[in-house]
Amino acid sequence: MTEPDHYKNTAAIQASLKKRYARETRFKWYGRLAVMTGFLFLFVLLADIIGKGLPAFTQHFISIDLTLDAATLGVSSTPDETELFAADFGAVIKRGLRDTFPEVSGRSEKRSLYRLVSAGAEYELRDRVIADPSLIGTSGPVWLMAHAEAGSYLKGQVDTQLPESDRRVKDNQVAWLDELRDQGRTESRFNTTFFTAGDSREPELAGIKAALYGSLFTLAVTFCLAFPIGVLAAVYLEEFAARNRLTDLIEININNLAAVPSIVFGLLGLAVFINFMDLPRSAPLVGGMVLSLMTLPTIIITSRAAIQAVSPSIREAALGVGASRLQTVFHHVLPVAMPGILTGSIIGMAQALGETAPLLMIGMVAFIMDVPGSVSDPSTVLPVQIFLWADSPERGFTEKTSAAIMVLMGFLIMMNAVAIYLRRRFESK
Amino acid sequence: MRRTRCSSRFPLNPLALTEFPDVKNLLAKALVTLAATGVLTPGLAQARDNVSVVGSSTVYPFATVVAERFGRSTSFKAPKIESTGSGGGLKLFCRGVGASTPDITNSSRRIKKSEYDDCQANGVTDVVEVLVGYDGIAIANSKESPRLELSLAEVFAALAKDVVGPDGKLIPNPNKTWSDIHPRLPNTRIEVLGPPPTSGTRDAFVELALGGGAKANADLKALYGLGAGQGDEIRALLGKLGIPQSVYDSMAANKGTPPKGKDIFKTIAYAMREDGAFIEAGENDNLIVQKLEANPAALGIFGFSFLEENADKVQGTLIDGVEPTFDSIADGDYPVSRPLYFYIKAAHVGKIPGIQEFALEFTSSRAMGEDGYLPEKGLIPLSDEELRQVQADVKSLKRLEM
Lengths: 429, 402
Description:
The structure holds 2 protein chains of 2 kinds.
Chain A (H helix, E strand, L loop, with lengths): L1 H52 L4 E10 L2 H4 L7 H5 L3 H12 L6 H8 L6 H11 L7 E7 L2 H7 L16 H12 L3 E5 L2 H4 L12 H32 L4 H13 L4 H15 L7 H25 L3 H9 L4 H29 L3 H5 L4 E2 L14 H9 L6 H31 L2
Chain B lengths: L20 H24 L7 E4 L4 H14 L6 E3 L3 H8 L10 E4 L5 H9 L5 E16 L6 E2 L1 H8 L2 E3 L5 E3 L5 H4 L10 E3 L5 H15 L3 H8 L5 H11 L4 H10 L5 H9 L8 E3 L4 H10 L4 E5 H6 L4 E3 L1 E2 L6 H5 L6 E9 L9 H9 L1 H4 L4 H4 L7 H13 L6
Parallel strand pairs in B: 1-2, 1-3, 5-12, 8-9, 8-10
Antiparallel strand pairs in B: 3-13, 4-10, 4-11, 4-13, 6-7
């Protein structure tokens, strides 16, 4: 009786089997498609950023014959440092350029000739001469940093087919640069300025160092505040606090705080830290405090989840051999929960690293040239620097923007690497 | 034994933590740093060795260039410059005296009496006003579209909230397309991107362009000229323009004294339309340029320096037949141009190093002079006479009286 039924059933199953396999295959492909789409977007984004940002890591220099005579510099024959500091190195460079292209005449033509060399070249030359005063009175070829526009032509980014009025590098500048290049007087070097300088209004002089340090200081403050407070709050709420209405209310509020838009924390920071506590504007200290308010809920929530996930048998075993609750928590629960806590903290820190909105309110969106030396020096952070460069009218900042994004991503990868390292160490215990 | 399970008052063993150095170290280090930052903070507000500048986004590109040169060529630290808008900058500036308040604020319009009073009330009694130069406000569109030519009256007709209708009465702005204003203009929707009310560019634009355009109407111009004593004439004009008399009464009640014709004129003429034809595009002029590139049918309002820097992408609209150029603004031919200022908090000079030196560099001939590096960045320079006066004022820190 049952056998024929069974066979019938088998036939039906076999008939549907192909369909079911096909369904599974289809589903797998949907999944692969989803993953591939994600990768495609990531790839396009990265390719765009790296493609745009790579030229920012090279910089062009132009070799000009300069005569460093005391008369043009406006200094005595044996000048001291303060005298050299105020000396007119710009005049030396201008004369060198005029001597290289003696046919140039007229005010506007001379101006565009001077624009071949970066406005920062005279300060660099000054520093070189201060370091070695014996250069005074000598003459010879000196490598000078090219202006961003001249540099973009030498990098091949300028389409000379366009009408002259539609591009920033003019025909006469193109001719001079071609001549210099044919004489082997131009050179492309790795852009060290980008990593050693602060912000600048001239694209060729702008660097990421100030923003990088600003981000480091800000995150250090954020971590020092948010991590201990967050972990302690989570430990207390999870292990010690009684379950009642009050703790429920606290829990709901923490969950809600995690969803509050970050600009609100900026307003709070402005009102409390700057207006009330009188802390300095634009300082990583205040930035870090604001961002730690923002990351606290994230750290508390993830830490609580990590502590909850610790097997109760570990707690019971510890208590069973006579450990106090404090000992149980610090000796047994926290070490096991630490990988999870660290992961949560790093997620919170990564959020803080990319934040600009709350920093706007506390004055960290600013033009800052000097590299900050402490948490109270005015500074800006990486995402703000990206924002400021993206808004700058000068074209040279387009590639700087992408390069800064690459640095920001590198920073993020490093943070994650540290987190993974720490996690491994705690897991192997 | 009974207590071990749930007592939270178990005696704390100080040695208990030593066996787990990682957790302990981490917490200890964090707490030490916490304490250190906490201890350091009270002293911070007093010690600041760099000049703090806030204010107008129009002056920002000039101030940053000066700051950079100043930082490189002197032993002082480079000033920190925030772009907050003129109104926002003056608000911060007038908050009080002390290292946590800015030393200098840039402004693309003159300080208002109300702001000056706010300053005085907060103890910022000595303010030095420095005229930097001039800036034209350009109305520009993408180079992909034909260049427009507008009169101030047409600008008013395109952007004012209320305009004078055919019967001489004030009506809500009915103009949807440019050709509604004048048949020679293109038949495209009126779409103008401009700065928000906190911006000095906006203040100057409504005053110069809308105010100037409103005066093309004889009744509005007459209203502008009437004094507080001419209440009956004002009321008659209001009737003629179709404005309810309650406007006059409520203004009189608010002020406590009868309003001037000028006050009523301002409330009418300086109001931007709010029906979507004028779009507030944020404090950032560069953003407006980018939006114009994406939308060739739109017009944008921004400072002349941005027009010059982006001359390959956008073109300035001719206003009353004058193109916004360096020369036409310097000569005063271009009607929509305004002065740029910065204000120094004299109480901070000598306390925070470099304030006066920075101001001197800003006003030096090599920066602000005709061949200086600021005009190269698009600033319209002062006349020689004005420049000498400004330089003398900065040297003596001449106090502003209002």
